[in-house]
TrEMBL record:
Record carries keyword Lyase: yes
Homology family: Belongs to the threonine synthase family.
Stretches assigned to the Tryptophan synthase beta chain-like PALP domain: 102-337
Record organism: Seriola lalandi dorsalis
InterPro entries (UniProt xref): Thr_synth_N, Thr_synth_N_sf, Thr_synthase-like, Threonine_Synthase, TrpB-like_PALP, TrpB-like_PALP_sf
Cofactor requirement: pyridoxal 5'-phosphate
Keyword S-adenosyl-L-methionine: no
Record protein name field: Threonine synthase-like 2
Lineage, highest ranks first: Eukaryota, Metazoa, Chordata, Craniata, Vertebrata
Entry keywords, A to Z: Lyase, Pyridoxal phosphate
Length: 485
């Protein structure tokens, strides 16, 4: 298994190379040069596997045994997923009227990011310990990724974690999961801007190949292929649990599963699309909030940013630059790196691109979309509680809104992705007129000390933020040199 860039300038990298990279040197994103196809008999044989075992089976398709032997992979995944609050790690809630919700939020920071992040950090630590090397992780977050990266990597001797979050645009619980972590290898910045603003200086830092190489700089956003790789597993898990593939005749087509995903940076959608290319019959629905670039792209070909990121009740998907759509486009265009390069460079330079109608039609055949207002989020949260006594987080409500607008029909297998616990979004729950008891771990956050640095909004804020972060990254390496000497 070798990896290439979506923009065609890089080929032949192995998993370890890709794991320790952010964007590819040509500005693209890494993808497997070929996507393995699962035989229906393989899918049937995986039916009933516990989620951690399924992660191992899927990961082994993309991580050669000469890099991580199978027995080591099993240990790493088991250790990564051992701290979740339910024994099965992920869980399906089966509610009324065919409403099935895949709960992915039982990790330490109560968000689906914990699933892929814990595994990815274990992979990193595995290679770093073997080589006795260090790395610096640089993460921009719209809310959940930063906390997950911090809690997955805190205290590890071979990793420093630098996280930047948009001050005032995330919930108090999301913020506290980051700023209350005082380990020496954790460094948090609060930026006066949106998550898309944060991405600009981060892209410039990752584009500096001398900095990347000399300081072991890497990403743990879903830019990192390993994050997307682990997310393949929960789509396959949902399919095996809800579609009944073992009941299909040996020579018959496998039944289809519709998966509805709340979407921001499009990492989950990219993972789902890869799973379809592996031969699993999924019908994907991407649901967005008022930041509707993915919806506009599919319905009209308008792949362009709005002037500003709209703050909504679902802040983790308040994103106008759905960077993982680059992976979707690459798959859609059968690996045409030149076309993807032209498209994405135009988008990055002008913040807009219009898909040719033939490309838009191809996209609409593999992806349906919808957009939900804050009122729709609140209405969905209330209705789900009234009918099921089941509390949704506002992001999951973005997905479940689809259930009430497109009622479940007999014979349709459908799953909704629950990306976070409602405990992280108390204000939204209260606005919906609902109440619940906060977990003790969340209440305890209020009593903890905090530590972070501010990135102020200056006239030349992008350059200033870049320099502040560069200074921190370079300073970390100097500190480690002093400590080792």
């Amino acid at each position: 298994m070798k990896y290439c860039s979506t923009r065609g300038g890089v080929r032949g990298w192995d998993f370890r190379d890709v794991l320790f990279s952010g964007y590819a040197p040509d500005g693209g994103m890494f993808m497997p040069e070929s996507v393995p196809v699962l035989h229906p008999d393989t899918l049937r044989s995986w039916r009933g596997l516990p989620y951690p075992r399924l992660v191992v089976e899927v990961s082994s398709l993309f991580i050669p045994a000469q890099l991580i032997p199978r027995q080591d992979l099993e240990v790493l995944v088991a250790e990564a997923l051992s701290g979740f609050s339910v024994p099965e790690v992920v869980r399906i809630a089966r509610l009324k009227e065919g409403l099935s919700i895949l709960e992915l939020f039982h990790g330490e920071t109560l968000a689906f990011k914990d699933l892929a992040m814990t595994c990815t950090v274990r992979f990193l630590d595995y290679f770093l310990r073997k080589k006795k090397h260090r790395a610096t992780v640089l993460v921009g977050t719209s809310g959940d990724t930063g906390g997950s990266a911090i809690h997955s990597a805190k205290g590890l001797s071979g990793l420093d974690v630098v996280v930047v979050y948009p001050r005032g645009r995330i919930t108090p619980v999301q913020e506290k999961h980051m700023i209350t972590c005082l380990e020496d290898n954790v460094h948090v910045f609060a930026a006066d801007g949106s998550s898309d603003d944060i991405d600009r200086p981060l892209r410039r830092l990752f584009a500096d190949q001398e900095l990347v190489k000399s300081h072991g700089l890497m990403s743990l956003n879903s830019v990192n292929w390993s994050r997307v790789l682990i997310q393949l597993a929960h789509f396959i898990y949902a399919y095996l649990q809800l579609s009944g593939p073992e009941q299909a005749e040996a020579d018959a087509a496998l039944p289809e599963l519709e998966v509805v995903v709340p979407t921001g940076g499009a990492g989950n959608i990219a993972a789902g699309f890869i799973v379809t290319r592996m031969g699993v019959p999924l019908k994907l629905v991407a649901m967005v909030n008022s930041n509707d670039i993915v919806h506009r792209t599919v319905t009209s070909g308008d792949f362009s940013m709005a002037t500003d990121v709209t703050q909504t009740l679902a802040p983790a998907i308040d994103i106008q630059d759905p960077y993982n759509m680059e992976r979707v486009f690459w798959l859609l265009l059968d690996g045409d790196g030149a076309s993807v390069k032209n498209m994405m460079e135009e988008f990055q330079n002008t913040h807009r691109h219009t898909l040719p109608e033939n490309h838009r039609k191809l996209l609409s055949q593999v992806l349906s979309t919808g957009s939900v207002s804050d009122d729709g989020i609140l209405e969905t949260m209330r209705r789900c509680w009234e009918e099921n006594q089941y509390l949704l987080c506002p992001h999951t409500a973005v997905a479940v809104w689809h259930h009430y607008r497109c009622p479940h029909s007999p014979g349709l297998n459908r799953c909704y992705i629950a990306t976070a616990s409602p405990a992280k979004f108390q204000a939204a729950v209260e606005r919906a007129g609902l109440t619940f008891d906060l977990p003790e771990a969340v209440r305890a956050l209020d009593e903890l000390a905090t530590r972070y640095q501010n990135l102020e909004r200056t006239p030349d804020w992008c350059k200033d933020w870049e320099e502040s972060l560069r200074e921190k990254i370079c300073g970390l390496v100097q500190e480690k040199h002093r400590d080792s000497s």
